[in-house]
Amino acid sequence: MSYPQQGQGQPYQQPQQQQQQQYQGGYAPAHKQQQPQQVAAAAGYNMKRRNPIGVWLGLPIITLGIYGLVWFFKVHNELYSYDRRTGDAATNALLSLIFGFITLGIWPLVMYIKLAGRIAQAQRAAGLPATCSGGLGFFLGIIGFGTLYYQLQLNKVVDRYGDTPAGQQVSLVA
């Protein structure tokens, strides 16, 4: 198919528009019309409930800080599995922590603030009030209590579904 030069012929039409014009009256019969595919975002997979003290103090000390990176990656990955509307940022988040020294530590702080927004979105999707605050998470992160705060906020979402095991499909409210 060739495209008309400027000022010549008909403007470019999408293939679906061309197909519709082939039928008398300009519209395809009802059995030929394609309905738009919609992806339902009304379900996600439940996250794992973690002990906030273990996440904040215990495991990072035992693993010499490596668990902090693992936790950050897993939380982002679980938030994406829980609500696909948040976008998949797990690898980006992990790389921002690993290579954060390039930006003098600014990009990891930005990712911690974004994590608060993602947790707040998960709280809204669970039908809870969004109580996770980026400002409070930023402040607590500077003094060393950021992961404790964020895990407490994540556990609110997990507790909303009761005894539903991690990885099982749950319904989203918003």
Walk me through what this model shows.
With 174 residues, the protein is mostly helical. The chain is built from 7 helices and 2 strands. The protein has helices at residues 15-22, 52-62, 66-82, 90-98, 106-125, 134-142, 146-160; strands spanning 43-45, 169-171. A two-stranded antiparallel ribbon has the order 1-2. Helix 6 (134-142) packs across helix 7. The longest helix is centred in the middle third of the chain and has 20 residues, at 106-125. It is globular, with a radius of gyration of 24 Å.
List keywords for this structure.
174 residues; mainly alpha; two-stranded antiparallel sheet; 7 helices; 2 strands; 3% strand; globular
**C-alpha Rg (nearest Å):** 24 Å
N- to C-terminal distance: 45 Å
Helices and strands: which structural class? mainly alpha
* Number of DSSP helical runs: 7
Strand content: under 5%
Largest sheet: 2 strands, antiparallel
Q: Could you give the order of the helices and strands?
A: HEHHHHHHE
- Low-confidence runs of at least 5 consecutive residues: 17-21, 35-40
Mean pLDDT over the full residue set: 82
The backbone outline, from C-alpha atoms, is: globular
- Widest sheet, order of strands: 1-2
Strand segment tally: 2
Q: Considering DSSP H and I runs of 4 or more, what fraction of the residues is helical?
A: 40-55%
